[in-house]
Amino acid sequence: MDTMRDRFAPVVSRLLDEDPRVAVVLAEIGRDGFREAERRHPDRVINVGIREQLLIGTAAGLALTGLRPVVHTFASFLVERPFEQVKLDLGHQDTGAVLVSAAASFDWPAGGFTHMAPGDVALLDTLDGWTVHVPGHPDEAETLLHHAVAAGDDKVYVRLSVQSNRQGRVIDGRHFVTVREGRSGVVVAVGPVLDTVLAATEGLDVTVLYATTVRPFDAAGLRRATDAAGTDVVLVEPYLAGTSTAAVSEALSDVPHRVLGLGVGRRELRRYGTIEEHTAAHGLDAASLRARIGGFVGAGRVPAGR
């Protein structure tokens, strides 16, 4: 199966052909995928070199002229390194862009901590007005890229990963999808962790919601699920643990509830290893998730039909 990033350049290259507002801004990484598009649209495919602050500044400038810039590099270089420019050039100037990342939390362990960005979504959460898509399959990535580019002049982050579920789901870029129904709690699985969550919760009487868009957070969808399953909520996110717990608490602020945030831990793992080893070390493998979810749901549970 191809990866989400394999879909990125072909999808955006077609959008360049179809929509004269679309522009692409790169910082060397990913340039090979746009060679032909660069030949066809030399004024709308821009490579700034290894200058990530300039990457964001250029995108903001293009947006101010009426273009819809699509900006791409590794997550650590797209969100963390040029964060001041994301905050000011895009946020403060109220200009829109589509930031499309690669490498996710630890997709390339051999790159070391400089190429890991488990805090990217949490960092964007400090800013106002961002839509955040976290696809779990290449088909979903393609759908969400189209949504992002078509989203007027909004600020959108699309988080691509080599980790993937076995099959794509029908998604709309806004709402959670109910994958399994139960009555002893709700588990929200974000993006590429869905398959692992389904394996971990096999036989448990829980509702599993699938989230590929986490900002805005589908509070209404969560409320509907907790009406039937009770207000014990477990979040399993492929980035910093607890990133969305505040969103859950806000959605359920008027009712007693408990929330457990699972995801990538704060402790830095200083050995390269493999993706699978990092997943297990952060407790995101199926066996670890089953123990943590099973130990949480039902203990002091607030019953359904409150």
UniProtKB/TrEMBL annotation:
EC assignment: 2.2.1.1
Keywords recorded for this protein, A-Z: Transferase
Recorded GO MF terms: magnesium ion binding; transketolase activity
Matching Pfam families: Transket_pyr, Transketolase_C
Residues covered by the Transketolase-like pyrimidine-binding domain: 2-167
Positions in coiled-coil regions: none
Top class in the EC scheme: transferase
Record Gene3D superfamilies: 3.40.50.920, 3.40.50.970
SUPFAM superfamilies: Thiamin diphosphate-binding fold (THDP-binding) (SSF52518), TK C-terminal domain-like (SSF52922)
Record's protein name: Transketolase
Organism: Streptomyces echinatus
Phylogenetic placement of the source organism: Bacteria, Bacillati, Actinomycetota, Actinomycetes, Kitasatosporales
